[in-house]
């Protein structure tokens, strides 16, 4: 069974004459331990797609199965519990709460009754190299450290699927290196990640890149036997064919 199955998803914003179709017949699936990047020019529907899969926005048509459950058919009570037990989130600005320490921020996402996590907070902190900063507040740590905390928080509950929207955010180029290291570590632990990114370095590390254009899947590129460098070149080439300035991605 696929961890994620998106089937013929359409999304409209607005109604009647002013309705615009933002997603148009999007279908794909993601297997256990597969790392998938979503790329596409700005406005192509990446965040909208991620929001549907996150269960925080609803589809106009189509179905989305996560771990076999059709999330488009469930109501909010079921979904809120489902999110806590099956999904991990990494937001663009990392969403760490300023009034809590790093440790408390990570503990926030521990589910009350979920299964026992694969790793304890201490273990995951050691893995991601944030043990020393657990008792600091977010305003006293660097951007790269915040990023690693966000990864720890997304993974602490052993979610079936981790969703990340532009996790390199507005950080400098060191950020991609930090994120790649964190992704590598979580991959070894069996995580499954769907990441929206404009960063070809991040995509090149993934198993696969889905390119969106005008709300449709325009290309589904697999890394297969390619090296990171070869896949990176292929991705950059595809971005230029897809059109627009690379800075638009
Ligand atoms: N809540 C909304 N209401 C109306 N239009 C929206 C809304 N959210 C996104 N859109 C539109 O949907 C399109 C896709 O947006 P988005 O998914 O944010 O693209 P991306 O993340 O690829 O930049 C854009 O044209 C955007 O203006
Ligand atoms: Mg977006």
Task: Write a compact overview of the structure shown.
Helix content is 33%, strand content 24%.
Low-confidence stretches: none
Oligomer: single chain
**Could you spell the SSE succession in H and E letters?**
EEEHEEHEHHHEHEHEEH
How many helices? The count is 8
Strand content: 15-25%
Could you say which small molecules are bound to this protein? adenosine-5'-diphosphate, magnesium ion
Shape assignment? globular
The CATH level-2 architecture is identified as: 3-Layer(aba) Sandwich
The CATH superfamily bears the name P-loop containing nucleotide triphosphate hydrolases
Q: If you compute it from the alpha carbons, what radius of gyration comes out, rounded to the nearest whole angstrom?
A: 18 Å
Fraction in helix: 25-40%
Instruction: Find the structural class using helix and strand composition.
Output: alpha/beta
Describe the largest sheet: 6 strands, mixed
Query: What is the β-strand count?
Result: 10
Q: What is the terminal-to-terminal distance? A: 32 Å
Q: What is the CATH third-level topology name?
A: Rossmann fold
On the 0 to 100 scale, the average pLDDT is 90
Strand order of the largest sheet: 6-7-8-3-9-10
Number of domains: 1
- Give the CATH class: Alpha Beta
């Amino acid at each position: 069974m696929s961890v994620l199955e998106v089937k013929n998803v359409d999304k409209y914003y607005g109604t009647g004459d002013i309705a615009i179709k933002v997603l148009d017949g999007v279908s794909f699936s993601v297997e256990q331990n597969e790392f998938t990047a979503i790329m596409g020019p700005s406005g192509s529907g990446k965040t909208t797609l991620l929001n549907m899969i996150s269960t925080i926005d609803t589809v106009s048509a189509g179905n989305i199965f996560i771990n076999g459950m059709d999330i488009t058919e469930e109501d909010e009570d079921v979904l809120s519990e489902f999110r806590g037990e099956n999904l991990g989130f990494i937001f663009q600005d990392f969403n760490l709460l300023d009034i809590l320490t790093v440790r408390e921020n990570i503990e926030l996402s521990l589910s009350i009754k979920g299964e026992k996590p694969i790793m304890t907070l201490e273990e995951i902190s050691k893995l991601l190299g944030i043990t020393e900063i657990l008792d600091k507040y977010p305003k006293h740590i660097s951007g790269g450290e915040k990023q690693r905390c966000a990864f720890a928080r997304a993974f602490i509950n052993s979610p079936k699927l981790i969703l990340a929207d532009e996790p390199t955010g507005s950080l400098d180029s060191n950020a991609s290196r930090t994120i790649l290291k964190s992704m590598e570590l979580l991959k070894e632990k069996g995580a499954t990640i769907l990441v929206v990114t404009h960063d070809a370095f991040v995509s090149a590390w993934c198993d696969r890149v889905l390119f969106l254009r005008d709300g449709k899947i325009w290309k589904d590129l697999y890394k297969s036997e390619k090296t990171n460098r070869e896949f990176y070149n292929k991705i950059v080439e595809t971005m230029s064919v897809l059109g627009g300035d690379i800075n638009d991605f």
